Amino acid sequence: MEDEVLLKRILGGDRDAFTELVERYQSSLVRLARYYVKTESSAEDVAQDTWIAVMKGLEQFEGRSSFKTWLFRIAANRARKTGTREFRVVNVDPVDPVSSARFNEAGMWREAPVPFTELINDKLANAEVLEACRSAIRDLPEPQQSVVTLRDVEGLSTREVSELLEISEANARVLLHRGRAKIREALEGKLKGGYSWQ
Amino acid sequence: MAMTKDITCHQAVALVSDYLEGALSRRDRQRLERHLEGCEACSAYLEQMRITIAISGSVGPEDLPAEAVSQLLDVFEKYQRDKSNE
After folding, report:
1. How far is residue A109's CA from residue A99's CA, in Å, rounded to a whole number?
2. Is residue A64 situated within a structural domain?
3. End-to-end distance of chain B based on CA atoms, in angstroms?
4. Residue A37 domain-assigned?
5. How many helices (H) and strands (E) does chain A have?
6. Chain-centre distance for alpha carbon B51
7. Is residue A71 located within the same domain as residue A36?
8. Does A127 touch chain B (CB under 8 A)?
9. What is the pTM of this model?
10. Which of B8, B28, B37, B66 could make an S-S bridge to B24, C-beta 3.0–4.6 Å?
11. Which of B18, B42, B45, B40 is nearest to B29 (CA)?
């Protein structure tokens, strides 16, 4: 069900609609909050405050931005007020997305990458692939984890991600690139039964 | 694994994520596209990356502990009660 449909129901006091919306966004909200605050429990507090702010503001929400964007903005603002982590200066050194060992001296692949079509044709519905991806995302260090979650999992634009995390778009893209490379590697490992070149 | 004048496979893979973001300079985009035309391995890599992003987009929300949901429902109900008492 679309967010907007759930919102109308929530305005009418529908608790199931509220539960559905919470289940949809809570984990990403906590992850975004965790980018700014030091502990998991203060991130959960930020998420809870965010939901209270949503309920209070819902009648005034005009739908000029998507609900998702509005929701994440509220969470980022609250998290910023709660506490700023020290490590937010982001290192942007270029990093090889693929291990150099996989290329020869001329910079050509020693062995071509395996096609992933099998993953989607036969296995996208497969909970195992999704779980491998989920777990690779969970294993990403911050701030890569927040960038990948907001951009690729939630589908926000790079500009929105950069605003929420207070980093430049170029910086967000570098982090995205690194995060995606690690997830790709995890999926490749899954496809090849755990074989890794590194 | 074709030979290309401009960039190597090793250099090409570094451009792929930005390429999918539409964030490459015109020059880099052209160099990458020229490379991809002649290189099956890098085309396979690009496809891997596209699929990786698609899978990330379908992982869906993580399961929440029932306790977290019920705590938020309490907040919701309290808010509804307060609102109707206003």
Report:
1. 11
2. yes
3. 71
4. yes
5. 9, 0
6. 9
7. yes
8. no
9. 0.86
10. B28
11. B18
One domain for residues A98 and A184: yes
In the structure encoding, which two tokens stand for residue A89, read together?
Answer: 């200066």
* ipTM score assigned to the predicted complex: 0.85
CATH top class, domain B9-85:
mainly alpha
Cα A53 from Cα A75, distance rounded (Å): 9
A183 to chain B: which residues are within 8 Å by CB? 52, 55-56
B61 with A26: Cβ contact below 8 A: yes
What gap in Å lies between CA A166 and CA B80, rounded to an integer?
Answer: 34
Count of C-beta atoms within a 10 Å radius of residue A108: 20
Q: Which residues of A touch B62 (CB under 8 A)?
A: 27, 134
Distance CA(A82)–CA(A33), nearest Å, equals 9
* Cβ–Cβ below 8 Å for B62 and A24: no
Domain span at residue A171 reads 91-191
Tokens encoding A140:
């990403």
Q: What is the pLDDT along chain A (198 residues), one digit of tens a residue?
A: 899 999 999 989 899 999 999 999 999 999 999 999 988 899 999 999 999 999 989 888 887 889 999 999 999 999 998 876 645 555 556 667 788 889 999 999 999 998 887 777 665 557 888 889 999 999 999 889 999 999 999 999 999 999 999 999 999 999 999 999 999 999 998 877 643 333
CATH number at residue A96: 1.10.10.10
